[in-house]
């Protein structure tokens, strides 16, 4: 209860800050404060992750990273509270960023030894298959289709596709209300596949970045944005007077850490790392200091899959 109050207060402060900066609703614009910073003095504190020493792992990805002296991690840059890059400071914040950092620490890499690469939804499989990133933490749904191309550790979180609409629009109250409406989603994402199904009867607009869909919603070019509730709540929290999430998820989106398909040793090491951070409470702390501030209460993550 106490925590909830703290989070609510933090969101209230955040709402004020977001309005005051009047960024035109475009999350990720230069000048926006990073969400965790904007949340004020009452905000839950981010944990730190002790860096493991003398890690030995029979993993090609790990061996390459060790040689180069840094890890290359793929992340999103325009998802507040999840994977967000402040355009002026280049600082990355959000729950996915924390997940990536805790794993890096367990592999023996300090935050300074991380090189971040922004990887949008449509190019994740290519980035992993080509070895452009060592692993990727970016609201990445585990599914069998993707497992043909990439490996997944986790799941570390369960999201579900939902709808983001303008606050004053009461014409859409759930997935059955999108018939004939313009609904924006992102190339290469599972919610785009879902909303294209004829049963919904939506006019689908496909873009490359979530922030572009949100911009089109604010400027009335589309009627709704569909993707995971966790992502949409972040945009709604940053635009509390203009946007709302319907709150009736209609798919299951278990998030995994993407990595090279054949690097089983790395996959198992990341699974163990995630399990340990859930056990020692740092996972929950990270959650409450990031995603928890956008209006999703903490729930224990699903069990690790290990395949
Ligand atoms: N979780 C969904 C996916 O992996 C949607 C979010 C995203 O595009 O990253 O496709």
Protein architecture, described:
The protein is globular and about 60 Å long. It has helices spanning 2-21, 35-38, 60-68, 95-106, 124-129, 144-147, 190-195, 210-218, 229-238, 264-279, 282-288, and strands at residues 71-75, 78-79, 83-85, 92-93, 114-118, 135-137, 150-159, 161-166, 182-186, 203-207, 224-228, 243-245, 253-260. The protein folds into 2 domains: 5-159 and 253-294, Periplasmic binding protein-like II (D-Maltodextrin-Binding Protein, domain 2, 3-Layer(aba) Sandwich), CATH 3.40.190; 161-245, D-Maltodextrin-Binding Protein, domain 2. The chain has 11 helices and 13 strands. Helix 4 (95-106) packs across helix 10 (264-279). The relative contact order is 0.19. The strands form 3 sheets. The protein has a 5-stranded mixed beta sheet. A 5-stranded mixed beta sheet has the order 10-9-11-8-12. It has a 3-stranded antiparallel beta sheet with strand order 2-3-4. Mean pLDDT is 89; it is low at 1-38. It has 307 residues and is α/β, with parallel strands linked by helices. It binds glutamic acid (GLU). Residues 121, 138-141, 186, 189-191, 227-228, 253 line the site of glutamic acid (GLU). Glutamic acid binds at residues 121, 138-141, 186, 189-191, 227-228, 253.
